[in-house]
Amino acid sequence: MMSKSKSKVAIVRLLIIKCIFGSQIMTLEETCENAIEIYQKYIEANGQRKTPERIAILREIYSLDGHFDADGLHKRMIDKKYMVSKATIYNSIEHLLICKLIRKHQFNDKYASYERCLESNQHDHIIIDGTGEVLEFCDPRIQQIKSTIEDIFGLEVTGHSLYFYAKKKD
Ligand SMILES: [Zn+2]
Fold first, then answer.
1. Residue 82 C-alpha to ligand 1 middle, in angstroms?
2. Residue 158 lies in domain
3. Strand 124-128 to strand 134-137: parallel, antiparallel, or no bridges (unpaired)?
4. Residue 26 and residue 35: Cα distance in Å, rounded?
5. Does the pTM of the predicted model rise above 0.85?
6. Mind listing the pLDDT tens digit for each residue in 27-79?
7. Closest CA to 38 of 111, 97, 120
């Protein structure tokens, strides 16, 4: 888990129900390799420079379990002796968002958080008032709501955003 030093974001997995995408469950390494392939195609198609740092950043993200922010990711890369600038981190994050390899969250008003999303378990978030604690949950009923919306409105739901804000009971 990564967070800014002054902000403690504890990630607790309350309930994890494996949401299987396709017919097989990928290992984390396979998922990472798939992500790299998607990213490389994007880099080539957009005339970007193919640098080892970009791939290293993606590998680092796909080795993380949970949420991260740009500064925390930068620190991890520096700790691993990759001399990447913060600009490179921000730039990579922008590209990975476009590629839909990471998802962006705004859990607080100070900085954005991100998490990998290729082949990841579908889940949503509860943000605890005051502490900044973020809980994750997975409830299959959300998938049922999507299916119902698709049937009733004749649409294909392409994504959703759901945050619960809560306070601890005394
Ligand atoms: Zn999450």
1. 26
2. 11-166
3. antiparallel
4. 12
5. no
6. 888 899 999 999 999 999 998 877 899 999 999 999 998 899 999 999 999 99
7. 97
| Spatial contact of 38 and 99, defined as CB atoms under 8 Å apart | yes
In a domain, 15, yes or no: yes
Domain membership of residue 6 (yes or no) is no
What is the Å distance from ligand 1's center to 127 Cα?
Answer: 11
Tell me if 114 sits within 8 A of 68, measured CB to CB: yes
**Contact yes or no for 65/119 (Cβ under 8 A):** no
- Output the CA 123–ligand 1 centroid distance in Å: 6
Largest CA distance in the chain: 56
Ligand 1 centroid distance, CA of 68 (Å): 10
